[in-house]
Amino acid sequence: MISTYTIVALIVIILVLGIFTVKQQTTAIIERFGKFVGTRQAGLNFKIPFIDKIAGRVSLKIQQLDVLVETKTKDDVFVQMKISVQFQIQREKVEDAFYKLQNPHDQITAYIFDVVRAEVPKMKLDDVFEKKDDIALAIKRELKEAMLSYGYDIVKALVTDIDPDAQVKAAMNRINAAEREKIAAQFEGDAQRISIVERARGEAESKRLQGKGIADQRREIARGLEESVDVLNKAGINSQEASALIVITQHYDTLQSIGSESNSNLILLPNNPNAASSMLNDMVTSLVAANKIKESSNKTKE
Question: Which segments cross the bilayer (predicted)?
Fold first, then answer.
């Protein structure tokens, strides 16, 4: 007869063989004689030894698939695009995800190729860069609709890289550099123009102030001469003699000013004793003649 210890040992072995664990975010697929009978979630689980078996384990974590797609744009430029798709198996559709698809990665890759090669040829290269989010949305929409029946949920689709042909990239860099040089030249030209205009304005203002100063100087000189003539007239000296005296005075003031400077040019004047008297007489004669000509011109006009 079979002893009690033997029966207990058999029961323990059966229990040990039937107990198994499932990790977090994982689902175990249980089959009985090759037929699906259910799933087991995370934690400690039990199956009938020698009858039930674990056909496989399915991860419920979000997974990512990176796909490189080469296609042509509307302006006949070949580009290589990197598409990243994040997907997850729905907990309530684990059976469909496990049994309906032999290789889900190949299925997703095929849909990505189909969508990219349908959308990108409608766009020019610049539009591909600008509308990469639209391409990603189209991929997600198409994949979500196709993979939902297989128990897969598409979480996110991203266009992570757009890589045109090397010659095209070099041409784009040259165009960009030329455009920036053009803008820099425009700024430099504007700066030079502003500098020239401001310098011209400064020179014009300087000339205006200089002219105003000369005019004020001459006006003050004329006023001083007028006052000097009035003073001499009050002393009994007529206007002609007063004018000649003022001219002589200014003449000698000029000589004194020239003599005080070491870098002055040499001026040779008549050095006979009557030189000053002769100069004064000549000036008086010239002034008298000028006055007579002026009086004669005024009578002719009358």
Answer: 6-22
